[in-house]
Every structure is written in C-alpha cells, then in structure tokens.
Amino acid sequence: MPELRSSIAAPPGGVMTDEVGVITGALDLATTCVDGAVEVWIRYAGAEEWYRISAADCHLHDPRDHEALHTALAAVLNRP
Predict the structure, then answer these.
(1) For residue 66, what is the enclosing H or E element?
(2) Does the pTM exceed 0.85?
(3) Which of 37, 33, 44 is closest to 10 using CA atoms?
(4) pLDDT value of position 1
(5) Buried b / exposed e along 39-67 (16+ C-beta atoms within 10 A)
(6) Three-state SS for 38?
(7) What is the pLDDT of residues 2-61, one digit of tens each?
(8) Bridge partners of residue 44, in order along the sequence
C-alpha cells in the first residue's frame, strides 16, 4: 500500500481525530492511497498508535495525485 509520511507541528487548537479527539504538539502525518481511496492518519511523533483525522479521507480521480494531496495536507496542518 503506497504510504507517504511527514513530520509536522500541530496548528493552534490541534488536530481532531476520530478516536481520541484533539491532539497537539509534534506529530507524524501519514496518507495511504489504494485505487484512489485516500486515508489520512496522524500520531504523536514517534508513537506506535495512529489515529484517523476526522473527515479527511477522500477519493482521488487520479491516484498519481496522492503525493500532491499529501504535500498540501502537511502544509496546511504544519503550523507551529
């Protein structure tokens, strides 16, 4: 499964997850793309457990856009 990862610093107010609510601080962002279906995951930097970012999953018309989408998400979310 193609996976891309980035290290980010949470924006003011943190990042809302489905499992544990808001998380803040130094985070790892990961996106996966299978047949255009994108899942977006976040975790505390270096932690084992990943959480889904609320309402962030989407479907790409062209799976080749996965890297561009990941880069855009990292840029939006990385706001120390």
Answers:
(1) helix 66-77
(2) yes
(3) 44
(4) 55
(5) bbbbbbeeeeeebebeebeeeeeebeebe
(6) strand
(7) 799 999 999 999 999 999 999 999 999 999 999 999 999 999 999 999 999 989 999 999
(8) 27
